[in-house]
Inverse folding.
């Protein structure tokens, strides 16, 4: 028995509603991860920025995070106190100070909270064909690009 196709508008409305639910679940999940690691939810994501982009100046971190340089100084201070980052002279330009992530300390502190999730995701993906995973991947890539555009628009207003 085949399922009756929903009208496109209804499907889009359902996708948008599910997107809101997923966004909230993601924020709450990352808050729980951060709490387990002894961090705030936002500080945990700044650690992730450093994991993905490597060492950077405070100004560059502020730009990635959408913070003022004053606000990012507080973030760096908290992460430094937690033993996750250190301020270092930029080897290419000794006048600059970069924020360097202590990857080993960050992994030791944050990774345990993700172990159960990684196992569960493996099981989740088993329920999808390769073609379906390709569609999910394309959707996520497109959604990320869309959000990055929205962030840019909001910051330029």
């Amino acid at each position: 028995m085949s399922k009756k196709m929903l009208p496109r508008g209804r499907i889009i409305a359902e996708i948008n509603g599910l997107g809101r639910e997923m966004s909230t679940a993601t924020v709450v999940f990352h808050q729980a991860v951060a709490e387990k690691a002894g961090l705030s939810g936002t500080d945990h994501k700044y650690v992730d920025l450093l994991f993905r982009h490597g060492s950077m100046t405070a100004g560059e971190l502020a730009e990635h995070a959408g913070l003022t340089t004053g606000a990012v100084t507080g973030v760096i201070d908290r992460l430094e106190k937690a033993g996750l980052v250190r301020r270092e002279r930029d080897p290419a330009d000794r006048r600059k100070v970069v924020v360097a992530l202590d990857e080993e300390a960050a992994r030791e502190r944050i990774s345990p909270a993700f172990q159960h999730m990684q196992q569960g995701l493996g099981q989740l993906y088993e329920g999808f064909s390769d073609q379906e995973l390709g569609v999910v991947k394309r959707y996520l890539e497109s959604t990320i690009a869309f959000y990055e555009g929205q962030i840019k628009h909001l910051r330029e207003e």
Notes: The chain has seven helices and three strands. Residues 43 and 75 are 7 Å apart (CA to CA). The first helix runs from residue 8 to 37.
